[in-house]
Specification:
heterodimer, A: 4% strand, B: 88 residues, mainly alpha, two-stranded antiparallel ribbon, 3 helices
Chain lengths: 241, 88
Amino acid sequence: MGSPVHQFEILPLIPIRFGALDLSFSNSALFMLVAVLAIYLFLARGMRERSLVPGRFQSLVEITYGFVANMIRDNVGKEGEEYFPFIFTLFTFVLVGNLLGMLPYSFAYTSHIIVTGALGMTVFAGVTVIGFMRHGLHFLRLFFPHGAPWATAPILIPIELISYLSRPFSLSVRLFANVTVGHIMLKVLAGFVVSLGLLLGVVPLAATVGVTVLEFGIAFLQAYVFAILSCIYLNDALHMH
Amino acid sequence: MEGQVWVKGKELAMDPAAAKMIGAGLAAIGMIGSGIGVGNIWSNLISTVGRNPAAKNNVELYGWIGFAVTEAIALFALVVALILLFAA
């Protein structure tokens, strides 16, 4: 049995090097490509017929679309509709990445902090820019709640500032840690099956099956939470609080 | 002096590998708080739905978001433990 973290190793499939810069096409990049292709084929196949009464594939695409559209309408409101493509891309990319990672021998690219960190930082930077573009310097008012006495400003402003700046970290670490820990847990439980043998191994095998179901739930939930927190941050930037 | 533990000027014979394991175990204690938090969320959600079943659709969503946000705290502790075990 290998180490439980061995599965997260990045292997360069096609080595590409420019001096010290390593731009190799890795297994992580391969699975990102597979995810994007899967999303594209799913949407293109589902929208091929465009019938009034949707078939199976079209229903799935419409459910996915409606799910994200409802999420934006409920959390951001009418003004959020122009950011639908971004949130939809974010949601499907994370969801398909999580689900692809659940296949045996595949690679979960969301289990790498560099991937989730890039996504989280993009959301954070985009939301901050949107906030300053809409409200100008008045956006800084976000760091001081309405109705609080001015005397509390020296305490409140640093707290609000830290909580604002920690958003991209909590957003990305949450996704990365959930996926990583799920995979490690599955590997450790599967290791118990091997070490306990044929008879007693049934117990950890049952646990592995249960945890696999849980991990599919987590895969969906984390994609959902990632998208909905992006919506909430967007709502903060658009409407302040 | 790397990899050696000193207490009151005397060298304490402690294997750095053992210190790593102990540190990882200590880091995992941080999950207690998150366990209490997640338990609070679900217990309040259940009692809310028990009192007013019609509110189920309204509060369920916030329950899941609250669960995911609170669970993340446990995972921060776990990430520290994993860094100690595999990366430090």
